[in-house]
Amino acid sequence: MKKNGLFSRLFMGLVFLFLYAPIFVLIVFSFNATKSRTVWGGFSLDWYAKLFQNTQIMGALYTTLLVSVIAAAIATIAGTAAAIGFYSMKRRPRTLCLSVNNIPMTNADIVTGVSLMLLFVFAGRFLPFKQGFATLLIAHITFDIPYVILSVLPKLRQLDANIYEAAQDLGATGFLAFRKVVLPEIMPGVLNGMLIAFTMSIDDFVISYFTAGSQTSTLAMVIYSMTRRKISPEINALSTLMFLVVLALLLVINIRQANQDKAAKKKADKLAAPGSAALLDTQK
Amino acid sequence: MRSKRNQILAVPYVVWMAVFVVVPLLLIVVYAFTTKDGSFTLANFSTMNQYLGVFGNSFFLALVATAICILLGYPLAYFLARSGHRMKGVAMMLIMLPMWMNFLLRTYSWMSLLEDTGLINRLLQSIRFFDLWNGIFGTNIEFFHMINTPGAVVLGMVYNFLPFMVLPIFSVIEKIDSRVIEAAQDLGANSRRVFQKVVFPLSLPGVLSGITMVFIPSVSTFVITKLLGGGMTMMLGDLIEMQFLGAAYNPHLGSAISLVMMIVVLICMAVMNRFGEGEEEAMLL
Predict the structure, then answer these.
(1) Which of A29, A44, B29, B73 could form a cystine bridge with B166, CB 3.0-4.6 A?
(2) Helix (H/G/I), strand (E/B), else coil: A32
């Protein structure tokens, strides 16, 4: 295919400007000395200092991280197990399971949220519990697992069935063969699934909003309740910090990937031309 | 690996799905067809008549947002797929990065940009744009009124859901075998015809999955309308939210509205499945 011309570069630039303008504004105004979000009143780091003293925001941040980590961890283990189970099934039950698995992903978030809320309200009539952290966690696990399954299943399909059998022929028990042979092969899918699950949990607002009850709040819920009055610039400071953390993480991943590619290429070059290198040596 | 014994591993999750996916959906159906005291009724659906405007409004705005997402997202995905290896990595990162920031914050930030005394209007004032505008059109305005309009709501949807359009299209275009394109060129097709006859048809599954991924959250949003629509534009999401957590508490009506919306989603999915296989992979990036 042809390389991009001036028009396409300009187009891409404008779309990226559109995507980043609000983020830029958010970051700039986190350093604003006044509380206004449109008028610049001088540079200050006050909002960063105040952020760490704000117990409401810090508490919500803690809840968000806690629920995301636990939900992603449980979803990764349960989802990987379920993916192997699905993979072992006959065609028909597998198709059925996968369609049900797809429901939380394709349904509108608000429908997933209110349906779970109905369940919790309904169950609350018979069981002594209230909506809170536990129900929030259940909801997060429920919408996280499908992503793990969909990211592990393709890896299982790519797996060479013979290597598992070979390991067993060589005397490994079922679990040992799984741990030593299968798991390393599907690991990229498992990790990818975990990452998607964690991202989904961190980013979720709608489902949490309907399932967390009135006592528990995630960060998104605090922000939402603030938008009804006025968002305090402390939130700008927090999102700037989060943005930087994510940016750093992505950069590290990208650079590592690039280095690995380079190393792999070098290795391949060396392997491809050992004869020619030897030839050069003898000519000297 | 594919042994019968391993099927047991799926059992816990199948039970989990039954309790937390299937039963809640059945509850929605039950609530939709019952009254407060538990007797059967269709009244929830007939009272929905008064909200026909909201249905129409939601579908119209979501359609407009989806169309704009295609117009912006398709070229972007196409140009990105043609970029060099390095550029591709960076650009993908730039598209994913905003998704990691809470969407409420990013949407809220648009408020600062769009307000009557917001940053865009201030910028235009500072370059004396409105003098020029008034001079040409004979008007007498000092700012553009952008916030709290349906246009702002559409902008918010496009902004939030554009990545969901770009990513599936990008992954599909990237997977197109370059030999297919070369073959078309060898057979005498110019670049326009190559696009028309080869690239575009092969990228359709990505577009279709992008459409579902943009349309469904758009039609059911209630946050974007609250923040950028100022409560002036009512959408299905607002309606449902009101019935469950808002002032008009009525989970039965809310369930009925959700049910109708879900059926529309199901119809969409059925149409999608008829069009393209390979959907599953496109969705996973």
Answers:
(1) B73
(2) strand
Rounded to the nearest integer, the mean pLDDT of chain B is 86
pLDDT score of B278 more than 50: no
CA distance, residue B59 to nearest chain A CA (Å): 14
| Both structure tokens of A21 | 């303008």
Name the residue range of residue A102's domain: 55-231
Inter-chain touch A119–B20, beta carbons under 8 Å: yes
CATH number of A180's domain: 1.10.3720.10
Residues in B touching A81 (Cβ below 8 Å)? 9-10, 12-13
Decide: pTM greater than 0.90: no
Number of domains in chain A: 1
Per-residue pLDDT, B127: 87
Q: Cα(B172)–Cα(B283) distance, rounded to whole angstroms?
A: 10
Flag whether A76 is in a domain: yes
> What pLDDT, on the 0 to 100 scale, is given for residue B87?
81
The interface predicted TM-score of the complex, written ipTM, equals 0.85
User: Is the residue at A226 inside a domain?
Assistant: yes
Is A130 inside a domain boundary? Answer: yes
Domains for chain B: give ranges and CATH numbers. Answer: 52-241 (1.10.3720.10)
